[in-house]
């Protein structure tokens, strides 16, 4: 009976278009922005740097003083700061829909930067053709329509420009697969929006195809996984509730609500979840339009 009520509620949300939007996701990241670096970034930082190093290596061979580097879904500015620390040149445009993330990026990036609080696709739509030398997008492309983002990036990038992307793979965090439905059903009174699945790629073939279909040539591509390790289940539960890793779930239900967090802790105990398997894919591409 509880399941039927839950599904009926979701049908109503669908019919009334009460669906999680990019603005909702932005607000959820506002809530975690101040602790993002210390809680989330330190867990995934090693997965991000190989893609950035690939782009940096390409740029170092023909660096220009007037490079325009666009950082989509910039979060707290790690990508731009990392690239600048190696190149020491360029103008960086950091775009994120979360005001909290942008504010933290401003504190972290004190070089030649422009900060824009905006939806990624909305910002790209305003960009001129052939205006960027490099575009970086780290764990953000699937919060919008990846194919639309890639198509616009092809238009905005100069011929020969570089595009570096890293994203989660479909099936990431498999340890939590059984937890989501139970958490939502048990607290359906607190679920306030319809949750949408993010369009993560299944494998390297489908990931690369999106870029090749938009006249990008692959430089490098790799899928991988690594373990997110925690000292105990309490630490793991806190991480899930405060890191943003469960977005967009945290846009539909308050994971820090005492009842929700208590149930999550019990489910982690019941399924004996101690660590998480993070599956991801990254690629570097050249725009040869």
Automatic annotation (TrEMBL):
Q: Which GO terms describe its molecular function?
A: methyltransferase activity
Q: Which UniProt keywords apply?
A: Methyltransferase, Transferase
The protein's matches in InterPro entries, at most eight in alphabetical order, are given as:
Methyltransf_25 (IPR041698), SAM-dependent_MTases_sf (IPR029063)
Q: What biological processes does GO assign it?
A: methylation
| Keyword match Transferase | yes
Q: What is this protein called?
A: Class I SAM-dependent methyltransferase
Q: Name one Pfam family in it.
A: Methyltransf_25
Q: Which CDD domains match?
A: AdoMet_MTases
Q: List residues of the Methyltransferase domain.
A: 69-161
Q: Which domain of life is it from?
A: Bacteria
Q: Does the keyword Secreted apply?
A: no
């Amino acid at each position: 009976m509880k399941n039927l009520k839950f599904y009926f509620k979701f049908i109503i949300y669908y019919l009334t278009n009460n669906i999680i939007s990019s603005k909702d996701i932005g607000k959820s990241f506002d809530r975690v922005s101040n602790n993002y670096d210390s809680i989330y970034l330190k867990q995934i930082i090693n997965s991000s740097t190989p893609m950035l190093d690939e782009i940096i290596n390409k740029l170092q061979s023909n660096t220009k003083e007037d490079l325009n580097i666009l950082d989509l879904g910039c979060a707290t500015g790690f990508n731009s700061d990392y690239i600048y620390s190696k190149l020491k040149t360029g103008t960086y445009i950091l775009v994120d829909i979360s005001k909290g993330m942008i504010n933290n990026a401003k504190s972290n990036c004190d070089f030649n930067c422009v900060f824009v609080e905006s939806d990624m696709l909305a910002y790209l739509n305003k960009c001129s053709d052939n205006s960027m030398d490099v575009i970086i997008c780290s764990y953000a492309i699937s919060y919008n329509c990846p194919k639309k983002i890639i198509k616009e990036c092809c238009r905005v990038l100069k011929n020969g420009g570089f595009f570096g992307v890293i994203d989660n793979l479909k099936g990431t965090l498999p340890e939590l697969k059984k937890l989501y439905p139970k958490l939502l059903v048990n607290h359906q009174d607190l679920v306030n929006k319809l949750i949408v699945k993010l369009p993560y790629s299944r494998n390297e073939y489908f990931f690369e195809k999106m870029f090749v279909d938009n006249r990008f040539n692959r430089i490098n591509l790799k899928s991988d996984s690594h373990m997110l390790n925690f000292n105990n289940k309490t630490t793991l539960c806190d991480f899930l509730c405060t890191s943003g890793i469960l977005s967009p779930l945290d846009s539909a239900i308050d994971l820090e609500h005492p009842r929700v967090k208590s149930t999550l802790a019990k489910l982690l105990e019941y399924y004996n979840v101690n660590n998480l398997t993070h599956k991801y894919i990254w690629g570097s591409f050249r725009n040869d339009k």
